[in-house]
Amino acid sequence: xxxxxxxxxxxxxxxxxxxxxxxxxxxxxxxxxxxxxxxxxxxxxxxxxxxxxxxxxxxxxxxxxxxxxxxxxxxxxxxxxxxxxxxxxxxxxxxxxxxxxxxxxxxxxxxxxxxxxxxxxxxxxxxxxxxxxxxxxxxxxxxxxxxxxxxxxxxxxxxxxxxxxxxxxxxxxxxxxxx
Length: 179
What we know:
With about 180 residues, the protein is mainly alpha-helical. It contains six helices and no strands. Among the domains are: about 50-105; about 110-175, no CATH class.
């Protein structure tokens, strides 16, 4: 109940018209109204004049909007950079401390990023090889793609693991084995 009364009192205070500034002893009401009117008209006239000046010249309007767009873009770029840096830095701090608390001192955020970067480079190399980019491939050393065999680029990456072109992973294709 008390809260309702306070809300009503606050609304009533918000609706009150602010009092005029204290008048000088010799100033009459008409002089005060005239002073307020002059200030209002002068301020409004200045606003309209500035707006008219800006709208009157297309070149000036375009220049102001161009500068506003550049400043918004720079502000957005700086904001995203700072927030992104804080998020990545905070994530690195939390992951490094969590890994250290679990006894995994060799696992750090930097090592995870390096590992992911290395995997992306491997994928990029395989894609480049599959697309047929020039390289040191020998077509006779590998079977062609299709018919149950992996892409030729796969064998380049799988050879260090012990796979050969004669033994593709999973064994020979069903047609060749007679199953």
